[in-house]
UniProtKB/TrEMBL annotation:
The chain crosses the membrane at residues 7-26, 136-153, 182-202, 214-234, 260-284, 296-316, 328-348. Keywords: Membrane, Transmembrane, Transmembrane helix. Residues 102-126 are annotated as: Disordered. This is Cardiolipin synthase N-terminal domain-containing protein. The keyword Signal does not apply. The lineage of its organism: Eukaryota, Viridiplantae, Streptophyta, Embryophyta, Tracheophyta. It comes from the Eukaryota. It comes from Solanum lycopersicum (Tomato).
Amino acid sequence: PAKRRRFWDEILSIILVLYCWILLHFSCNLNMLANSSLISSNFSTLLFLRNQKVATRISLANCDKIKKNPPKTQFLKNSISRFGVKGSLLYVCHSSLNLQNQQDPSMEKDLAGSTEENELGGGSNNGDQWDWTTSFVLFGLWSGLMYYVFFLAPNQTPLTDVYFLKKLLNLKGDDGFRMNEVLVGLWYIMGLWPLVYSMLLLPTARSSKGGIPVWPFLVLSCFGGAYVLIPYFALWKPPPPPVEETELQRLPLNLLESKLTAGITMAAGLGIIFYAGLSSGDVWKEFYQYFRESRFVHATSIDFSLLSAFAPFWIYNDMTARKWYDKGSWLLPLSVIPFLGPALYLLLRPSLPTVPALSSPTSTEEK
């Protein structure tokens, strides 16, 4: 009926608005993590710089020695703006600090180490105060999608859905029925999406220490697609841990970072999309009829749309972790092209920055 169709059009519009808000919210959080002018109080250790009139607290990483022996610092022009951002305090310091007379080598060593670690994507922000508003919104979106798929999606052809699955899985022989070319293309492109997301999420979208591992969600996404990945998106806590050189030489990272894998994925996607896209208008009308009647086709089409919609954010995250935003930002508008945009980025992106293999605790103490 027309009223029901209008109702679901409004629901889909609300979901699209929520997705745009989530994408903007995630981007703002990443920008705050990458912006050096914002000094967050979420770090685990604190550096106290004091003079007679002003007591300013600045958060830095790896500052145990500095905390024990705070340096004497002269403040020339202090103007501190305090903002309350999502439950945590951020201090923007507009002051010029005279740190040239400091002669503590231990402090310089710690500062250099923390700077190098942050540049390589490690950082010591454990995400304890990561804003949970986005998580609640994502879980709400996921719950609404699950309810819609299982209870509200059209389900007029359950026997036909079983038949389609058997045909697509090659469990039925040639019985004279010709499968819809668009449906076949959608089925095979959904088989490539888990590989694309594995290349985007490993390792630059791993959660920080104490976080939930990403690999179980990637494995299950081969069967559940975005319906399985969205819970991980809600639980994700940046920044990712640093990547060691030896990790890139082992499976699965050496496979996921390979240009050969990216090239094969791109070529396979192009072939599938041309196969479905060049179909006649009658084939597309038939697919649209399936979409309106079949729960299997309906849920799979929504899954494809969700994976395409979330891809630009994870491309931005991966691009930022690789320090390639200045040169590769032109790929962000192209990433909105379903599948082909992310596949092109994976083919062109640079190698991942790494850190040397960590030594054992015994050898570190001896040094």
